[in-house]
Known about the structure:
Elements: E1 2-3, H1 21-24, E2 31-32, E3 38-46, H2 50-59, E4 65-68, H3 77-80, E5 85-86, H4 95-105, H5 112-131, E6 146-147, E7 157-158, H6 165-178, E8 183-186, E9 190-196, E10 205-212, E11 216-227, H7 248-255, E12 260-261, E13 266-273, E14 281-282, H8 285-289, E15 293-295, H9 315-329, E16 334-337, H10 344-347, H11 349-357, E17 367-376, E18 379-381, E19 393-395, E20 400-401, H12 413-432, E21 444-446, H13 457-471, H14 478-495, H15 503-523, H16 543-549, E22 556-559, E23 567-569, E24 599-601
The structure holds flavin-adenine dinucleotide.
Amino acid sequence: MCVRKSACDHPITPELGLNTIFDTRRYLIPFRTGLLPQIFCDTLVLGSGVAGLRSAIGAAQSGQVIVCAKDTLDLTNTAWAQGGIAAVLDPQDSIEAHIQDTLTAGAGLCDLEPTELICKLGPKRIQEIIDWGMKFDRNGQDELRAGREGGHNASRVYHAGGDATGIELQRTLIDQTNQHENIRLFDHCFVIDLLTQSNEPGSPVLGAITWHPKYGLQVIWARTTILAMGGAGQVFRETSNPRVATADGIAMGYRAGAQLADMEFVQFHPTTLYIPGAARALISEAVRGEGAFLLDHSGHRFMPAIHELAELAPRDVVASAIVRQLALQGGKHVWLDCRHIKHFPSRFPGIHRTLGSFGINPKTDLIPVHPAAHYTIGGVRTDLQTRTSVPNLLAVGEASCTGLHGANRLASNSLLEGLVMGAIAGEEAANRADTAPVSPGSIVSAIEHSNHAELDLDDVRSSLRSTMWFNAGIERTLTKLDDACDMFDLWGRYTLDKVFETPDGWEVQNMLTAGALIARAALNRPHSIGTHTLVDTPALESADAHDAQCPQAHQHMIWIRGSSSPSYCHALSPITEHTTNTTCDSTTTKGEPNTDLGVSKN
Ligand SMILES: Cc1cc2nc3c(=O)[nH]c(=O)nc-3n(C[C@H](O)[C@H](O)[C@H](O)COP(=O)(O)OP(=O)(O)OC[C@H]3O[C@@H](n4cnc5c(N)ncnc54)[C@H](O)[C@@H]3O)c2cc1C
């Protein structure tokens, strides 16, 4: 059951709703579909990571499939994954234990149904990718070698090439999609927006408008569109994510009227390599799993005094501890000591190579590390069949929010979620391929000319990323979140009214939208829970106290375009399609009225 209320007992009373500037623009560019080149398919998959490609393989069982990726097919968060994929393959382990570990990590906000579904189907999906040729690491007896990561009470994380799990998974899935004659792969094809019949939230998705440096704007019509465009890591100045993770899918889902859930929850990884001026490279938790220590500037190992699991405490605990250590001692990083770890080069060949490129030898040198934004827990709300609140639109992977991760993701559960939910989305799309033919619409987006001054896009990009890092990062205060919302409203006013012609501009518009939603959602959750750490409000002492003092403490927060404030919901599934409700029961919030079917004016 969902209720629609303002957040409870808010210590300050800011304007809690999202500024209408983020709701006014339906499409980022003006167009008339009738004047653009048209492509037809049964299933359009947006994104070529684990979630997108696994969906595409399933959908290709029945019908023509197109996959779009904005860069090369393998520039994805998926390919950058190091630790592994969590699943129960050892008879000594149990599905129940995996479910329990997931629920514990999720801090009371995981939904039981998706958690059970994903943990139960995990072993089947792992076997499937082994059958497709994925080479997991094995021991001397040729058995799969399982590793352990923070929060798992059993060794159930399966890796490949030591720390190259993602590269091997991506390769396996690309090979598999290449074998399907029903799948066409469009790389360097930037998806700008989902097309909907009308502008009202809940209007069916008909496909997407895309831009390619060679072919320009194109319209791709599809019976089913699967949104698998990854997360929002790049919205933060410090991130482990590749440059493609600019929240495009989440922002365009919002523009198209899909409900977004739990946007305030962003997982920060404690240990990325800190080299000034260089992109942050992840130093996997598995390195701490092998016994690495965190040292402060005086060489003191500080984690044992903070948590009984020391360096293997939950990620948010370790990340906060590092931030506090830096605040105490100054400096930009702490140290990771791996000098005592045997076989570092063979266990972590990729990390060893990266360190080597900066002249760091983990056998003799300490490694400078710093936390960074790592995983976007919130996203487009889905049910157990990956359906969103918008007809014809499915969502999978990091861009989606199934309720599996709750308020904090258990390590290595996201590749698993991508495989399991991708297979479900693919099957769902294949089942729809025999229904009515793909029907194009005549859609016109008319955007008035902006009178605001020209702007320096790079400046807006770097300012918004810094603001998110300092004001909506690891340790938040309501005042800093409030300031962030003000800044986003200001930047939104003169950035979202513009029309850009290349991905740089569209990315900044998407990042502004996602950043505004994350900050506003965080401001609406007035107590710490999971990854959302507020340092200026008293912590609620127990789960019961949570529920008594703040009925929404263990509920999901839902945002939808056109609604001035969020609604709350106990479980994300089921969702009713064909609805403009922001809630799952009686309370209704209408999107902006649309009198001019199919014509966007803003
Ligand atoms: C460094 C690192 C290490 C990680 N390690 C692990 C791990 O060990 N285990 C684990 O379970 N998880 C790990 N994760 C998380 C995990 O990798 C991701 O959550 C998961 O891969 C997301 O998959 P996805 O398919 O949803 O998105 P992605 O793999 O990120 O793919 C997104 C796709 O969307 C496309 N796209 C985005 N915007 C557009 C646009 N506008 N137009 C066209 N295409 C677009 C991209 O081009 C890309 O193809 C790690 C993440 C990182 C960054």
